[in-house]
Amino acid sequence: MSLSDSLVKPSPLPGFGPALGAALLWLGLLVLVPLAALVWRASGLGLGGIIAIATQPRIAAALRLSFGLAFLAAVLNVVLGGIVAWVLTRYEFPGRRLLDAAVDLPFALPTAVAGIALTAIYAPNGWIGAPLAALGVKIAFTPIGIFIALVFIGLPFMVRSVEPVLAEFDPEIEEASATLGASRLKTVLQVVLPPLAPAFITGFALALARGVGEYGSVVFISGNIPFFSEIAPLLIVVKLEEFDEAGATAVATIMLTISFAMLLLINLVQGWTRKRMGHV
Amino acid sequence: MSDIAVRAPTQGRDRDATAESPAARAILIGLAVVILTLFLFLPLATVFVGAFERGITGYLKTLGDPDTLAAVRLTCIVAAICVPVHLTFGVAAAWAISRFDFVGKSLLVTLIDLPFSVSPVIAGLVYVLLFGSRGVFGPWLAAHDIQIVFAVPGIVLATLFVTFPLVARELIPLMQQQGSDDEQAALTLGASPFTMFRKVTLPNIKWGLLYGVLLCNARAVGEFGAVAVLSGHIRGATNTMPLHVEALYNDYDMTGAFVVASLLASLALVTLAIKTFLEWRYADEIARRRRH
């Protein structure tokens, strides 16, 4: 038996070699080699070098802001996305199809377009910004503006993660709960929502990962004031403009490391929740 | 037994035990409409209202501007390269993953999804580290007078990176679900591998493929962060449409920025419309349980 036979299960279908070869070639050239360049540059800086850069006050402030706001936006999206997913799967009303199609808008709309539109709405002379400015509340060019942009960008992740699971939910379980005398609210909170937890966690992870790295829709509304409304991805751009590739590499490495650590943690929580909820 | 007989006569209107009260229902629908209006419809309306601030003639004037036309042309070139590349890659990857069992398959699937968890700005950065003047291949490229960073090739590479998973992840679940019975039958009946692919595989996956291409095209046209890092921001030369939006915005030409943005928003709406149509018409032939 040759080596290739032990690595691949025999199949009557043709084309395994060329297909896998093409896939690996593209993956290697476009994704793996470039990412290896980042790892290689980062290893040149050393752990000490990266930590020294990360703890510079301006960079630490930007990292805190990016991760903190992405987290808060994902938390709000659990509520907003949950309501939207519930309404779209459970109720039939005029315009439902239109709303359902519109949920994907943040995926389809270029981020720069969303960015300038949100800025125009929430700027002190904008449709929502002006009345709020009269009350003394500033949204655009503050962290609140960044927060709103991140909610915008994260909403579809939550809705699209929860929607299919909610649609497949067995109505007999709800009927059983009602028959046993539970009020509707109790049924929803204690019977329907708990099994949806894994779907919510998936949506949360996707929204969080996207929010941390988001650039286009945030960079216009943020105003980019150091120590106040400057996000971590922008700092990479700033460092590159200053020809400080070491600094840019360090910020990128920290962002990726924290992101992957968070996704790993969320996956662990996910596995634990599934087991608890009796899913396999 | 008639319906009325089971109903308690004192109850005016009985309600399904597994439905919310009409009031709760109305409040929830109202909330969903408010959320979506605030976060989705309002930004969209702003773009189109802003674009026509100077009337239709002002709109056409910005559209006819040479820098705008150059941005449209560059964006089309980038999309015209990305879509066929990922079409080829996506079909090849999906074929290998859905039709064969091999060591390291799940790792390959994870790696294909990797670009989604990388910030677009970092996608741009990695190419600067590779091909920039002080990058790994920088000196060699300079010696041969090839420019990648701050030029069109860099923009194309960054866009290829961020759109990498879109076609493949649409096809993989679809083809796994379909199985290979049809293809094995075709081979048994004497079809050549090429005929089998053309007459059996391709017709089976065409709508899923179109769906993936649609998503890939939308992202390629609209990519901002990755391209912003790698473009030289030279108007008329290395500005794509999203970068041109930024340039006009930075000039305090909000109306101009919204004019170019309205083109991009229109494309997004067309994409959503086709996407919705495909999902509605060919739901079975498009991968379900998608993650974005």
Describe this structure in words.
The complex is a heterodimer of chains A (280) and B (292). Chain A has a domain at 67-231: Orthogonal Bundle (MetI-like fold). Helices cover 76% and strands 0% of the residues of chain A. Chain A has helices at 3-7, 16-54, 57-90, 96-102, 105-108, 111-122, 129-134, 143-167, 171-179, 184-192, 197-213, 216-219, 232-241, 245-276. In chain A, helix 2 (16-54) packs across helix 14 and helix 11 runs antiparallel to helix 14 (245-276). Chain B is built from 14 helices and no strands. The chains are: A mainly alpha (280), B mainly alpha (292). Chains A and B meet through helix 2, helix 3, helix 4, helix 5 and helix 6 of A and helix 2, helix 4, helix 5, helix 6 and helix 8 of B.
* Largest Cβ-defined interface: A-B, 99 and 104 residues
Strand proportion of chain A? under 5%
Order of helices and strands of chain A: HHHHHHHHHHHHHH
CATH topology of the domain at 67-231 in chain A: MetI-like fold
At the fourth CATH level, what is the homologous superfamily of the domain at 67-231 in chain A?
MetI-like
Which residues of chain B sit in consecutive blocks of at least 5 with pLDDT less than 50?
1-13
Write down the secondary-structure element order of chain B: HHHHHHHHHHHHHH
Structural class of chain A: mainly alpha
For the record, the CATH architecture of the domain at 67-231 in chain A stands as Orthogonal Bundle
Q: How would you classify the quaternary structure? A: heterodimer
**What proportion of the residues of chain B form beta strands (DSSP E)?**
under 5%
Q: pLDDT below 50 for ≥5 consecutive residues: which ranges of chain A? A: none
Number of strands of chain B: 0
For the record, give the distance between the C-alpha atoms at the N and C termini of chain A, rounded to a whole number.
Answer: 36 Å
Largest sheet of chain A: none
Termini separation of chain B comes to: 49 Å
- H/I helix tally of chain A: 14
Helix content of chain A: over 70%
